Amino acid sequence: MPVIAVENLSKTYWVSERAPGTWGALKSLVHRRHRAVEALGGISFTIQPGELVGYIGPNGAGKSTTVKVLSGILVPSGGAVTVLGRTPWQERAAHVAHIGVVFGQRTQLWWDLPVIESFDLLREIYRVPREDYRKTLDELVETMALSELLDTPVRLLSLGQRMRCDLAAALLHRPELLFLDEPTIGLDAIAKLTVRNLVKRLNRDQGLTVILTTHDMDDIESLCSRVILINRGKILLDGTLERMRQLVTTERRLVIILADESTWIDGVQARVIHRDGARLTLSFDPDQISAAELIGDITSHYPIRDLYVEAAPIEEIVAQIYQDTHT
Amino acid sequence: MAKLQDTLLLYARYVGVSVRSQMQYRASFVMLTFATMLISGLEFVATWALFDRFGSLAGWTLPEAALLYGLVNMAFALAEGWARGFDEFGQMVKSGGFDRLLLRPRSTALQVAGHHVQLMRIGRLAQGAVVFIWAATRLQVAWSPPRVLLCLLAIAGGAALFSGLMVLQATFAFWSTESLEVFNTVTYGGVETTQYPLTVYRDGFRRFFTYVVPLATVTYYPALAVLGRSDPLGSSLSFQYASPLFGFLFLIVCLRVWNLGVRHYHSTGS
Do B269 and A13 touch (CB under 8 A)? Predict the structure, then answer.
């Protein structure tokens, strides 16, 4: 049985327009002018247990609306949603007891108190039996290296430390499904890597199903085998990263470092798109020439010190897709 | 019943967390508590001055009025303390903090109340208690168990009613980001109004605080029973004893309205 089954989900917001001020507020209680804004225009997908899915799209694409519906905050205008066998908005309390949600922008920990106090209170809120809580907490402290942070007030934690604690807080009740909303936003390089590794391990070792929304394409590239790309309330693509690349271009890149800076490369089936001293970036189409052939061709004609093949950065791919759908 | 116990237990936890949070800023807490005590103390000086000048008000002596004053202020202090989260609720909706509460398997009203338990209101509570005790010793009232119980009920009923008002005001935030000062007028005006015997007011005013927002009902009538005064408006003794219940009723109605607001939020998300 899938963890999430979404069918033809739609959501239309009614944005009210009203005069400013208290009088306007009062007047709008009686009479308002409304404008319909379609946030989701009938999307469908299923997610199986243990998947780690990247849910991406530009700002205002409908990402957070989807997450809000799936997590039971928002009632959709149409369509059917089943998450862990329940309709989220019909059984809010039962539903949220089985999911975990982390917002990168907002902590759910109590600002002035040591981390452990927040954890203890969450135990009470989620009605986790003491015995189970002990066990889970020990595990989390171990895997996330939290032992030194537990007694520190949240306001004194660095952003990276806080994110680790927030991640742990969302897992105390052992959810089967985890929503991560921009979990690496604002983190430094090392903290980003730490968070990614943690998420990867939770997914791999414990079979936790994870839905990740992010603007950081490195997150997607290092974590997600599957990507759902959404824009203007419609799914543009649901598949592997590789398929997403192909959607835009099959282009590959060959970076070569020449032995001699003055060499000019000519007459190969590739285009020089960037040159920085002895370092050249060539673009080629693998349908026309394989990487092996191209490399053979170049090395037989020119002295090369080093070379490697790379795919177009996912960042550029996504920017390209966003741009295409905007025009 | 088990559910209620569970809920109260969690609320107690929230109180604990709030206490420890606020104790992080001990000096500020102490000063704010004293400040609230002083401010509400000064208010009473005004009442005292009034009686000093006129001797009595609508037939009430100063200690009698002080008893009423104590009841109302203790009730208000309790409500302000435990329902402070509702006061800040507009901000919570704006910042998206309310989403977090919906993501937890507990009642939203409980979580909003627990979000901020304001301890410095102990200042007003203490001031109300001092005035009440002073009045109690001055009056020739036989403090029988039913009378003591009635006083406690009146404080609890009043607290429930003031809380209901705060819940109602917070509920408005589901529909608009504007804060409605009208509510503050009723809440704070209500405190001011019901500190004095109901009979000093005109009919319309009296009816408003009896039937619409039954603030006078929950404090004035019990005070009559405790003082053993006959009611110029002709209420019976049994009604006077039962009247604090209207405070709880009012709160229940307000919580129902709150749930409507939560449902509205579910469909709009803002």
Answer: yes
Helices B245-268 & B215-227 angle (0-180, nearest 10): 160
Q: Token match 């009613």: residue?
A: B161
Q: Does A74 touch chain B (CB under 8 A)?
A: yes
ipTM: 0.84
Q: Which of A28, A94, A99 sits opposite B176 (nearest CB)?
A: A28
What is the rounded radius of gyration, in angstroms, for the C-alpha atoms of chain A?
24
Give the residue with greater pLDDT, A161 vs B140: A161
Domain topology for A4-108+170-246: Rossmann fold (3.40.50)
How many contacts (CB atoms, under 8 Å) link A and B? 78
pLDDT tens, residue by residue, B65-98 = 999 999 999 999 999 988 888 988 988 888 889 9
User: How far out from the chain centre does Cα A269 lie?
Assistant: 37
**Is any Cβ of chain B less than 8 angstroms from the Cβ of A117?**
yes
Which of A109-128 are b and which e, b meaning 16 or more Cβ less than 10 Å from the residue's Cβ? bbebbbbbbbbbbbbbbbeb
- Alpha-carbon distance of B88 to B111, in angstroms, equals 13
> Pick from B245, B267, B263, B244: which is nearest to B255 by CA?
B263
pTM for this entry:
0.84
- Length of chain B counted residue by residue: 270
The upper half-sphere exposure of residue A147, i.e. CA atoms within 13 Å in the direction of its Cβ, equals 5
Checking DSSP bridges between strand A99-103 and strand A177-181, what pairing results, if any?
parallel
Pairing, β A252-258 against β A209-213 = unpaired
Distance between CA atoms of residues A324 and A72, nearest Å: 32
3-state secondary structure of B269: coil
Selected residue with higher pLDDT from A99 and A221: A99
Asked if B243 contacts B217 with a C-beta cutoff of 8 angstroms, the reply is yes
Is the minimum CB–CB distance between A94 and chain B shorter than 8 Å? yes
Residues of chain B contacting A126 with CB distance shorter than 8 Å: 104-105
User: Amino acid identity, residue B239?
Assistant: F
- Chain B interface, Cβ < 8 Å to A: 6, 9-10, 13-14, 17, 20-21, 24-25, 95-97, 99-100, 102-106, 111, 175-176, 178, 180-181, 266-269
pLDDT tier for residue B42 given thresholds of 50, 70 and 90: confident
Q: Where are the domains of chain A?
A: 4-108+170-246, 250-311
Q: How far apart are CA A140 and CA A164, in angstroms?
A: 10
Task: State how far residue B3 is from chain A, nearest Cα, in angstroms.
Answer: 12
